[in-house]
User: Fold these one by one.
Assistant:
Number 1:
Amino acid sequence: MHWTGTCPEHLLDSYAQARTSINDAPHADADDENRSPGRVRDLETVVARRGRETRVTAAVDGDTAVAFTEIRVSPPPSSIASIASIASIEDTAVAREHRRIGPASWIKACSLATLRSQRPDVAYVTTSNAFENRPIRTINQRIGFVPTVLWTTAVFPA
């Protein structure tokens, strides 16, 4: 299932839970995400106020979102400018009981195909991943992402 903008109300609770599933991904950060339905709505509002479009592809089991990937992209350029748009994949997560059967690969590939057909002005899609998250790095390389930068985070103990 795809949507642009806000999550359909009937999926909001399960979508928020699916977003929280990202905490299970290997990562170096000590901070986990807590995505309540209210927090999801707040985030959607902030992204819209920044002039970005949220495009979500979700795997849905009945009326339950069990996996998702989120792309953010600026509006298409005006006819005056011929600058290509750049999109970014923000998060991809799969509920624990639905892992290892391919939903992350499927939704990422499907979201990119949909973006390409609906937004031909988008020339590049970026994503960033924790180095420790080998499964999502493998998926990204399999569907065509090319690693370009290794990002490190340093912490100064206070």
Note: Residues 2-142 form a domain with the Aminopeptidase fold (CATH 3.40.630.30).
Number 2:
Amino acid sequence: MLEIFLVIWLSKKLGEILEEKGYKKGWYIAMFVGSWIFCEFVMILIFIMLFSVENNLALIPVGICGGAIAYGCMYLFVNSLPEKEVEDIRGEFKLD
């Protein structure tokens, strides 16, 4: 349950960065949530293949580490995006 709140909070942080740069945040946040889930499952599968797991509770931190890797990659991607040029009402481009 707490992981869901963490994903929502991190999504809002990414959305703020995207809005400051002039991008729409919807698809980027969907990409982040999808990559979070995908990386969780991949990390858990790798952990299960490498180590014999007797306790399923040991898989929870491994999955969260996979999600953290997904957030780190998405954070670097979002910060590497250039700022969009904002078009003025008259059709002229403003350079800030």
Note: The chain has one domain: 10-80.
Number 3:
Amino acid sequence: MVDPSHELMLEQLRQIRATLAVHSQKFDEVLFRLSSLEIGFAGMRREQAGDAETVAHLQARVDRMEGQIDRINQRLELTDSPA
């Protein structure tokens, strides 16, 4: 015959194992979701870097056009000559 106190301890251990299994499963799910967030964040950073590059190229073009407009204005004598 099994001692009632041993049976009670075995039942408690079974419950602890069941709870641990649930927590382990949820932890795995959290890790998966965290990985998904990290991948998404990395993608956003790549897009942001691409946008910054585009802005830099556009600013360079605007600067060149501004210089061209200044030269045109000077040739047409629409502005004062530089000092």
Note: Residues 13 and 19 are 10 Å apart (CA to CA).
